[in-house]
Design a protein that fits this description.
Strand order of the largest sheet: 1-2
Number of domains: 1
Helix content: over 70%
Radius of gyration: 20 Å
Largest sheet: 2 strands, antiparallel
Number of strands: 2
Order of helices and strands: HHHHEEH
């Protein structure tokens, strides 16, 4: 093992810890969302009024926790995948297709991160606002997408490396549809 690959391996392990933190943040947001909705329902049930902003907060929390959880789920192999064709092909062909899929996904996430970043900057420059119960700059909604697509792109590159260095076969992911 070279010093370079050892450094990348350490970086990969640190990256995994970051993704675990993102997954925990998503779980915390889901917990807060549940508490908020229960509080709103409880307030109505006991004729204490309601929390008119609860649904909007839940909407934003759902959006954010989806982006926060995605890289962690990808790392864990708990994303949805259709691998029936991969499992029917010879192992080396499946392995090569896995590499190609990770490369394509990394490129796609990079393009989406760049487009989202550009949209966030344009929104900030225009001073666009979200006008609902809460009023705030629109770029606040776009920036997490830019950041998380960048995180996903990096994770796909790490997946590509792990696939390259691993057995020449299809991955044994946790949520296979086959």
């Amino acid at each position: 093992m070279t010093m370079h690959s050892d450094a990348i391996g350490r970086l990969d392990r640190l990256w995994e810890r970051l993704l675990q933190g993102l997954g925990l943040a998503a779980c915390a947001l889901i917990g807060l969302m549940v508490l908020l909705i229960c509080a709103d329902v409880g307030a109505r049930a006991f004729a204490l009024g309601n929390l008119p902003w609860a649904a909007e907060m839940a909407e934003y929390a759902l959006y954010l926790c989806t982006f926060l959880a995605a890289p962690w789920l990808l790392r864990q192999g708990r994303h949805v995948r259709m691998d029936m064709v991969l499992r029917a092909l010879p192992a080396t062909v499946s392995w090569a297709l896995e590499l190609a899929a990770d490369a394509l996904a990394a490129a796609t996430c990079t393009a989406l991160a760049a487009a989202s970043f550009k949209a966030a900057i344009a929104s900030a420059e225009q001073g666009s606002l979200v006008l609902k119960i809460f009023v705030f700059p629109e770029w606040w909604l776009v920036a997490p997408a830019a950041a998380m697509f960048a995180v996903l792109a990096v994770e796909f590159l790490f997946r590509l490396r792990r696939q390259w260095r691993g057995p020449r076969a299809v991955r044994d992911e946790a949520t296979s549809a086959a």
